[in-house]
């Protein structure tokens, strides 16, 4: 990473850290972009260049953790798809593992703030679409292929179940431990796939 990229990363991290502190201290609606810029010691132009809107700031951690498509593209090309997808989910939860304790508080704020909550669902849809594209490229099938779509949906379902499992606990458990336990359990199940009714003879 060059000096410019390193400085940009530090500035972005500083802005997010300050914003999360303010959101937790005084709430999402009461926190303004001007307050964030002032406490982060950056100009408003710089703030808006990194984060055009306040909801993108509070969702930054979720955005990074849900980037399963990008994580899949970084896996070795020769790695089996199921192994690569498991690794991608594990790595996404590793981001939660280095969280400094604010994740649970931020999640509560998002759940009770309509704007970021709605944006979060939009983020899920876009992330799943990108994962579908990454899977299609890897298996050399079209993005609309049923196998590709079902694999992407199932992968995101695993991600969401693991996230909800961690969230429903005491938040002291290792996020990577939660997702790895779930992945091991899934591989012991005889998953049921809906079947069509018998064809009627004319």
Provide structural commentary:
With 202 residues, the protein is mostly helical. Helices cover 71% and strands 0% of the residues. It contains eleven helices and no strands. It has helices spanning 3-26, 33-40, 44-50, 54-58, 60-65, 68-73, 81-97, 103-111, 114-139, 146-168, 175-186. It starts with a helix and ends in a 16-residue tail after the last helix. The model has no long low-confidence stretch (mean pLDDT 90).
The percentage helix is: over 70%
- How many helices in DSSP terms? 11
**Whole-Å distance between the termini?**
67 Å
Q: Structural class of the helices, strands and pairings?
A: mainly alpha
The share of residues in extended strands comes to: under 5%
Radius of gyration, Cα only, in angstroms? 20 Å
Give helix and strand order, one letter per element, not per position: HHHHHHHHHHH
Apparent shape: elongated
Low-confidence stretches: none
Number of strands: 0
Assembly annotation: single chain
Could you give the topology of this structure?
Blueprint: H1 3-26, H2 33-40, H3 44-50, H4 54-58, H5 60-65, H6 68-73, H7 81-97, H8 103-111, H9 114-139, H10 146-168, H11 175-186
Helix pairs in contact: 1-2, 7-10, 7-11, 9-10, 10-11
């Amino acid at each position: 990473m060059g000096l410019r990229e390193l400085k940009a990363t530090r500035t972005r991290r500083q802005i997010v850290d300050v914003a999360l502190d303010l959101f937790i201290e005084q709430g999402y609606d009461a926190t303004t972009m001007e307050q964030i810029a002032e406490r982060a010691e950056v100009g408003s132009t710089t703030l808006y260049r990194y984060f055009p809107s306040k909801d993108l700031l509070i969702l930054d951690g979720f955005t990074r953790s849900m980037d399963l498509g990008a994580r899949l593209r970084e896996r070795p090309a020769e790695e089996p798809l199921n192994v690569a997808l498991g690794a991608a989910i594990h790595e996404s939860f590793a981001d939660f593992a280095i969280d400094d304790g604010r994740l649970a508080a931020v999640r509560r704020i998002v759940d009770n703030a309509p704007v970021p909550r709605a944006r979060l669902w939009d983020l899920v849809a876009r992330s799943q679409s990108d994962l579908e594209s990454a899977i299609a490229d890897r298996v050399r099938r079209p993005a609309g292929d049923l196998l590709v779509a079902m694999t992407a949906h199932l992968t995101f379902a695993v991600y969401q179940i693991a996230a909800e499992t961690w969230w429903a606990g005491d938040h002291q458990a290792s996020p990577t431990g939660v997702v790895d336990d779930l992945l091991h359990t899934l591989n012991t199940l005889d998953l049921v796939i809906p079947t069509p009714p018998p064809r009627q003879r004319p």
